[in-house]
Amino acid sequence: MLRFGTDGVRGVAFTELTEQYVAELGMVAARELGVTKVLVGRDTRESGKQLETALANGLLAGGVAVELLGVAPTPAIHFWRQNEAVPARQLLHRTTRTQTTA
Hints:
Layout (H helix, E strand, L loop, with lengths): L2 E3 L2 E3 L8 H15 L3 E6 L5 H14 L3 E7 L2 H10 L19
Helix pairs in contact: 1-2
């Protein structure tokens, strides 16, 4: 089940959070946030790079400039946002676990 929280969308990578879904989420965010630039940080999980790319592609398709920060903790992203004068609204992408079997 997808869950929306203060630090992003959470769900099982590539099952609930497919690359297509994440790209579409980026396009919607680009339209609804009304910003010109977004910083995208991710964690170290295996799904991170692919979902980061999908999100960036969606944001770019929506006309928003994207700066990929790579692996970065939330406080670092906020620090970069302040130093680069990125609008207060931002989209923080944190990837989630991949589905495992018992």
